[in-house]
Amino acid sequence: MYYFGQRYPKICVCATRHSGLSCPVPVLYGPAMDTIKANGLEFGYLSAGPLDGPLALCLHGFPDSAYTWRHLLPTLAEEGYHAVAPFMRGYAPTSVPADGAYQTGALAADVNALHEALGGGSDAVLIGHDWGAAAVYGAAAHAPSRWRKVVAMSVPPLASMLSSFFAYEQLRRSFYIFLFQTPLAPLALNRDFVAGLWKDWSPGYDAFGDVSQVMECLATPDRIEAAIGYYRAMLDPSLHVEAYASEQEACSAVGERPVLYLHGAADGCLAAGSIGDPLPHLPPGSCMEIVPDAGHFLQLEQPSAVASHILDWLR
User: Fold this and answer.
1) Domain spanning 13-314 has what CATH number?
2) Who is most buried in 148, 176, 259, 312, counting CB within 10 A?
3) Residue 261: phi, psi to the nearest 5?
4) How far apart are CA 313 and CA 297, in angstroms?
């Protein structure tokens, strides 16, 4: 058995809080989190597995945290991977970037810098969900020699969904993207709003604990501005920082490392019918699977099925 927190061999993770609430959120006994410096930021991260194993870097999205990988990290560890889930830039306890860069190119740069800082080799694998998926496309395309295989979930390449994104039903689901372009966004991004997104995006899933973790990551105004910043940079190129120009360009490239793309059949954020056909926009040898009985947060709703797809792909 491997535990989160590579320096703390007695740390364990439970499925519920001491309060007895039946929510699937980790309870950490002791300081299960470690930190590492990469790309000018200090990243908080969770880890599992042997330090000399191949790196498996797992990236979360919005509104989420590194705890979204609590089922997958131990599974990867049992396969011999050094599985690491960082908190994305701006999400506590990771630093808020001084340059205010939240474009996908900056995220991709973080990924490859973490590979370097964590001692990853050419056998490293990359797994991303939501904004994490956007980051892995760019990171793998920009530095393919660092990554053996890639997994992306819930957000296909942008070119795959452009034609269907502007359908009315999908625009209605994506209202928050446009809300986040307004000055009202920081007022809207509260616990009730986040809980509502989880309810809509993964119908029937009990997200009480997950929402609590997210709100801890976004507990201060600068953290809230950071989460909103991802979406503002998405639609406003004037917010892009020139230092990440080459990574930004890579984010729209097809790349060369094969990608397994997973999407929940009942995704309420980006409907399965709105993703188009991702495969022509992914590298040769890529594969796609629609996961039944899963919404947007499929790694939490169907952890066994998702882990099975990922392990088969990595093997």
Assistant:
1) 3.40.50.1820
2) 259
3) -105, 125
4) 19
Do residues 27 and 33 make contact, with C-beta atoms less than 8 angstroms apart? no
Describe the chain by its helix, strand, coil percentages, rounded to 5: 40, 15, 40
Contacts of 161 (CB under 8 A, 6+ apart): 270, 274, 275, 276
Q: Which two tokens stand for residue 25?
A: 């959120």
Going by C-alpha positions, the residue among 159, 161, 192, 152 that lies closest to residue 61 is: 152
Q: Helix and strand tally (H, E) in the chain?
A: 13, 10
Q: Sort residue 170 into left (φ over 0), alpha (ψ -120 to 50) or beta.
A: alpha
Query: Which helix (DSSP H) or strand (DSSP E) does residue 259 occupy?
Result: strand 259-264
The closest of 154, 134, 124 to 52, measured between CA atoms, is 124
pTM for this prediction: 0.90
Query: What six digits make up the tokens of 139?
Result: 């990171």
Question: Tokens 């990595």 sit at which residue?
Answer: 314
pLDDT, tens digit, 9 for 90 and up, residues 18-34: 233 333 344 333 235 79
